[in-house]
């Protein structure tokens, strides 16, 4: 991957793929809040999402997205009336190719509630796709290891789970959007 050179305030797409190379989901527009070779932080609100079967829907609330080049997960922090919810995708590390942020979705997800409780989701889907798409033992090991890393981040309130992370990046998202509207 070439050096990531993202400009604060520009928008780009997020493209999620499956292990077999097929497109899984596309977010049409994410506002870049920060980007370097290791971390991309973006924001979106009422963004058009297109599924692999071409169905579309629009996100319901503002969200901050967090991608890291070294970890096999990404995190979506969603702002709802009753607090911040996190939807964590177990995935390949991101790449940015000048066109979009891209990653491979490995089915497993962790949902974190405003009270800090969390649940691992989609284990049946992971088992099915592991067999159908032939995830290697190495991929399985890395995904499972990153579930553990992600759970420790949640419990330790590290990275995107830190209260200051949410405050700082949500405020920056609002500031940039407000400036763009002027």
Explain this structure:
With 182 residues, the chain is of the alpha+beta class. The protein contains three helices and eleven strands, in the order βββββββββββααα. It has a seven-stranded mixed beta barrel. A hairpin with a 4-residue loop joins β4 (48-51) and β5. It holds the Pfam family DUF402.
Report the portion of residues in β strands: 35-45%
- Under the CATH scheme, which class? Mainly Beta
CATH homologous superfamily title: FomD-like
Instruction: Specify the number of helices.
Output: 3
Q: Let me know the number of strands.
A: 11
Radius of gyration, Cα only, in angstroms?
Answer: 16 Å
Question: How would you summarize this macromolecular structure in one to three sentences?
Answer:
Keywords: Hydrolase, Magnesium, Metal-binding. The protein has 182 residues and is α+β, with helices and mostly antiparallel strands. The protein is built from 3 helices and 11 strands.
Secondary structure: elements and pairs:
Elements lengths: L10 E7 L5 E13 L3 E6 L3 E4 L4 E3 L4 E6 L4 E8 L2 E9 L3 E2 L3 E13 L5 E4 L1 H10 L4 H20 L6 H19 L1
Parallel strand pairs: 1-10
Antiparallel strand pairs: 1-2, 2-3, 2-4, 3-6, 4-5, 6-7, 7-8, 8-10, 9-10, 10-11
InterPro entries: DUF402 (IPR007295), FomD-like_sf (IPR035930), Ntdp-like (IPR050212), SA1684 (IPR016882)
Keywords: Hydrolase, Magnesium, Metal-binding
GO molecular function: hydrolase activity; metal ion binding
Observed structural traits:
alpha+beta, 182 residues, seven-stranded mixed beta barrel, metal-binding, 11 strands, SA1684, single chain, metal ion binding, FomD barrel-like fold
């Amino acid at each position: 991957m070439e050096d990531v050179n993202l400009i604060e305030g520009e928008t780009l797409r997020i493209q999620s793929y499956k292990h077999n190379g097929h497109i899984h989901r596309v977010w049409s527009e994410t506002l870049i809040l920060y980007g370097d070779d290791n971390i991309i932080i973006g924001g979106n609100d009422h963004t058009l999402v297109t599924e692999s079967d071409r169905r579309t829907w629009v996100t319901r609330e503002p969200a901050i997205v967090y991608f890291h080049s070294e970890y096999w997960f990404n995190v979506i922090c969603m702002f709802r009336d009753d607090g911040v919810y996190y939807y964590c995708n177990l995935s390949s590390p991101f790449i940015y190719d000048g066109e979009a942020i891209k990653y491979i979705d490995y089915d497993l997800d962790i949902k974190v509630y405003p009270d800090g409780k969390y649940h691992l989701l989609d284990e049946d889907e992971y088992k099915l796709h592991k067999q159908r798409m032939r995830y290697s033992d190495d991929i399985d090991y890395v995904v499972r290891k990153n579930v553990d890393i992600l759970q420790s981040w949640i419990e330790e309130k590290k990275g995107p789970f830190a209260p200051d992370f949410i405050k700082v990046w949500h405020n920056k998202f609002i500031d940039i959007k407000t400036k763009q509207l002027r």
